[in-house]
Specification:
heterodimer; A: Aconitase, domain 4; seven-stranded mixed sheet; B: alpha/beta; Aconitase, domain 3; globular
């Protein structure tokens, strides 16, 4: 995979941001534009006002734990989040983000080297992925994504990949 | 090299003799089940420009469809009702034979009741609690609807082979302490990431002695520990239950004696107590006695975590001849109509109704807030799956998670109490 760079302003949340918080059930079925106004409201009201397209969302432990609900993933696209990086990410949330074509990374210690408002750069290379806090001049790195995940991400998610495969009559 | 149960299931379904931790495999799926969100797959595909949405299903016999989250349609703005119509039309379009509509109950219990969950098999559902099938020695795990679109077409999906941890439960469970308390103890002691990206194998005399209902509760709740799989060996109890309902042949898996475990946790069950997880985390867990006196407005028992016969039996045992506290609403929701009927035949439902319990029809509502939403400031103690902020309505409500016994006992006295005080 060619080296890819994601750069954005950090919006930071804490530990255990679960999918009930990201996508409250009572707003989940009212459409994503309505849900957007209520995402994270249990822990941070008007969260959507703090997020600009291109921002990088940084979380603490077990980001996205709980229900598999996909609106909790889809809402990140509506908010324009360019990548999610957390100390650890719940398995299903991780899978869903890849399936939606949203770059997501579990990077132990990331919450200690970035703060809200910092500018972060993610360099996705063949050998490793580097997470640079350009504001505070600190960085961490992890292993590159496995090939299968990289392929899904590059295609923009499962649906574009499925469309491509079906187009080939497979 | 020896393999764990998770490794064997993934190897078997990927056509490989051996897999090891960290390998990526493409595994063939034995069965899927999709609930209310089925229509979202059709919509998602159409939005992505895949003309005609779902046009092909790899094997219709391997697809179960039902409606359980909002069943029957519960919204007066009829969005849900319209969605259900669309689901019925989609089922007809594809000619899917296993469709239960709103009439069977909660997906995971229906899958178990109807014999779709088999030892050694591999099952995917777009739902986090799919780990429940491990109780029957079945590799069950959750995916999203988007990935399910892929599975529906190809019948396979990629997986990473997870490391396995062993949970060894020794001793005997004291009276009044149940499977739910084992889960709460693990969650509170080792944290909600103890099994992140991992498979759990549950072993030991206490696990052997547990009923299938108890094992199903633990396997269900294991996703709250981060687990990808939560597996139990298939013993006589498992085989007796499965054999009379299995829809196809099956072959259980057993771990090899030289299988490699990342870590083994040993729990002395004799020292366990009835536990309560306090709002809004499953990591802050204390003995029920620690919360004695916390006033409650609502007490729920049900969902795919605790809507089985043994759970309802506990509620009936505690509530027999007693009344639910006048300031408490107690809701009991059997997980399926099969369970409902068993509870009725056993006389449990009559006991509960006499005690003033609201016995509701089988659906996900008691766990999701669709049945008994909480107002700001209200307190609920629940034997369902989660105590997350806002899960059952207002984010200003408080949810405590406990066993059916603890919930029923608290419903009687109007505040949280160790069930052994009222038994």
């Amino acid at each position: 995979m060619a080296e890819k760079i994601i750069r954005g302003k950090v919006v930071k949340l804490g530990d255990f941001v679960n999918t009930d918080v990201i996508s409250p059930a009572r707003w989940m079925r009212e459409g994503l534009e309505v849900l957007k106004q209520h995402t994270m409201e249990a822990i941070r009201p008007d969260f959507y006002k703090d997020v600009s397209p291109g921002d990088i969302l940084v979380g603490g432990r077990n980001f996205g734990c709980g229900s598999h609900r996909e609106p909790a993933t889809a809402i990140m696209k509506v908010l324009g989040v360019s990548a999610i990086v957390a100390d650890s990410v719940a398995r299903l949330y991780f899978r869903n983000c890849i399936a939606f074509g949203i770059p997501i990374f579990a990077v132990e210690g990331i919450s200690r080297i970035v703060e809200e408002g910092d500018t972060m750069e993610i360099l996705m290379g063949d050998e490793k992925i580097t997470f640079r806090n350009l504001t505070k001049k600190k960085e961490l790195s992890t292993a590159p994504l496995p090939e299968i995940m990289a392929r899904v991400l590059e295609a923009g998610g499962i649906y574009p990949l499925l469309k491509e495969r079906l187009g080939k009559g497979v | 090299m020896g393999m764990t149960m998770a490794e064997k299931i993934l190897a078997r379904h990927s056509g490989l003799n051996e897999v090891k931790v960290g390998d990526y495999v493409t595994a063939k799926v034995d069965q899927v089940c999709i609930y209310d969100s089925f229509i979202e797959i059709e919509e998602g595909m159409e939005e992505a420009g895949i003309e005609g949405g779902i046009r092909h299903v790899w094997d219709k016999d391997r697809v179960v469809i039902l409606i359980d989250h909002g069943a029957p349609a519960m919204d007066k703005n009829v969005n849900m009702a319209k969605k259900h119509v669309a689901i019925r039309n989609l089922v007809k379009k594809l000619g899917l034979p296993h469709f239960y509509d709103v009439k069977a109950g909660i997906c995971h219990q229906v899958m178990v009741d109807k014999g779709f969950v088999l030892p050694g098999s591999f099952v995917l559902v777009p739902d986090s609690h799919t780990t429940i099938y491990g109780a029957l020695n079945c590799g069950g795990t959750g995916i999203g609807e988007t990935e399910m679109a892929w599975v529906l077409h190809f019948g396979e999906l990629w997986f990473r082979v997870p490391p396995t941890i062993k949970m060894e439960v020794l001793g005997t469970l004291p009276e009044g302490v149940t499977a739910k308390d084992i889960f709460l103890y693990v969650s509170g002691t080792y944290g909600t990431e103890v099994a992140q990206y991992k498979s759990i194998e549950w072993v030991g005399p206490v696990i052997d002695a547990l009923s299938l209902d108890g094992r199903l509760c633990i396997a269900n709740q294991s996703v709250e520990l981060g687990a990808k799989f939560s597996l139990f060996k298939a013993d006589e109890k498992t085989l007796a239950f499965v054999k009379e309902r299995a829809i196809r042949d099956f072959e259980p898996v057993e771990p090899d004696l030289d299988a490699i475990y990342e870590k083994t946790f040993t729990i002395d069950a004799s020292r366990l107590e009835p536990y309560v997880a306090q709002p809004h985390s499953l990591e802050v867990v204390n003995p029920a006695s620690h919360y004695r006196g916390v006033k409650i407005n609502q007490a729920n028992i049900g969902g795919c975590a605790n809507g089985r016969l043994e759970d309802i039996a506990w509620a009936a045992r505690i509530l027999r001849g007693k009344k639910v506290h006048p300031e408490v609403r107690c809701i009991v929701g059997p997980a399926s109509w099969d369970v409902y009927k068993q509870a009725m035949q056993a006389g449990y439902l009559e006991t509960l109704i006499d005690a003033g319990v609201i016995v509701c029809h089988p659906h996900c509502g008691p766990c999701t807030g669709m049945m008994g939403a909480l107002a700001p400031g209200e307190v609920c103690i629940t034997a369902t799956s989660r105590n997350f902020k806002g899960r059952m309505g207002s984010p200003e409500a408080s949810i405590y998670l406990a066993s059916p016994a603890t919930v029923a006992a608290s419903a009687v006295v109007g505040h949280i109490i160790d069930p052994r005080e009222v038994m």
